[in-house]
Design goal:
Helix content: over 70%
CATH topology of the largest domain: Tetracycline Repressor, domain 2
Number of strands: 0
Number of domains: 2
Number of helices: 8
């Protein structure tokens, strides 16, 4: 792909992330094109259908969260890294859940998703599980907590959170971290 084509694709994906987060299923490809500063033809040259665009946006977002989870795990002690990750994922949760809800019907294990989305979701889940296991091994998280528990709590926070509720979200994440036995 040419450099300008790759740059346009990235602009479209970034715009799609924001427009889908704001408007959900009501988001239009015209609005995404306008926000990206490209023509509608450019959008459809990169993504044949709106569903293709949704899937690519979801993959990109999951990949971004996975990279963030892996980066947080490196320099810090496991407990602090897990606490930082939980705060970050709770803040990102509403966008992630909106994107995931726009995908075709699927179960909690990702059955029914396209291969790229399934692979991105699996990589994200592995990064989250890895962070939890490191925190548990360091004695910084309850040993009986599972990745499924953490996922459920993050989904609950995501669905209950308005992006403007910074202070309330921070308190809620603190309560969740206390329940998981993770030092803040």
């Amino acid at each position: 792909m040419r450099r300008d084509g790759a740059a346009n694709r990235e602009k479209v994906l970034l715009a799609a992330e924001h427009v889908f987060a704001e408007k959900g299923a009501a988001a239009s490809t015209d609005e995404i094109a306008q926000r990206a500063g490209v023509s509608i033809a450019t959008v459809f040259r990169n993504f044949a259908t709106k569903q293709d665009l949704i899937e690519a946006t979801a993959c990109r977002y999951l990949e971004k969260l996975t990279a963030q989870a892996l980066a947080l795990a490196e320099p810090q002690d496991p407990g602090k890294a897990f606490a930082s990750l939980m705060r970050s994922l709770a803040a990102a949760g509403p966008v992630k859940m909106t994107l995931m809800d726009l995908l075709p019907p699927h179960d909690d294990d990702g059955q029914g998703l396209s291969r790229p989305v399934t692979e991105a979701a699996d990589a994200f889940r592995a990064a989250l599980d890895g962070a939890l296991h490191r925190a548990q091994a360091a004695g910084a998280a309850r040993p009986d907590v599972t990745g499924d528990d953490v996922s459920l709590l993050l989904r609950a926070l995501a669905y209950a959170t308005d992006l403007s509720e910074g202070e309330a979200l921070d308190r809620a994440v603190g309560i969740v971290l206390d329940g998981l036995g993770v030092p803040r």
